[in-house]
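User: Second chain of the day. Same drill as before.
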Amino acid sequence: MRSDQVHISGMDARAARLAKEYHCGYEITAFSYAPMLADAAAFSRVEAECAGLGSLWLHAPFAELIPCAIDPLVRQTAQHRFRQTLAAAQKLGIRQVVLHGGFIPHVYFPEWYVEQSVLFWRDFLPPDFVLALENVMEPSPDTLVSIAAGVDDPRLGLCLDVGHANTCVSRTPPLDWIAPMAPYLRHVHLHNNRGQDDLHSPLDE
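Assistant: Same format as last time:
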């Protein structure tokens, strides 16, 4: 694997510096909190830290953004924030974006999640972007794989978050997520936890 295929997460304050030092890619997380999308100063900081970096991914905001929501107004909010995200990415020259699917166990039936997500992403997909849906609270890879297969568009792929696949919500061992997602994988998140909570611990813990 080339070093530029490894993207250091902006969750670490040293990430941009380390990405430059080791010639790695960089995943911008500054806009994971949606109000930052409208913060000109925050955008300028991100623009400056990305200067000179090669391969870039941008992580979209996710809190309370639910593409499969039952309430149409909630879906509209998700669409609005995601469009803001793509506008920010475009200004930064980024064409690769990670998003969450919004699944909440015991709230959405898996069948609903798949059906409504397929409709949302078919309508939303922008030209010249690659979007990768990340597993968070999904109990198995089945729903995300069904969404990607249902949309059936190279612009929509998947992001396997290995740490999320090893939390209490996952009913599938982490290694068993890989093969079903492989045809649609565009990105992978690597971090550690103890198999219960989402700790986002580094790989050496």
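Residues 72-91 form the longest helix (20 residues).

User: Great, on to the next one.
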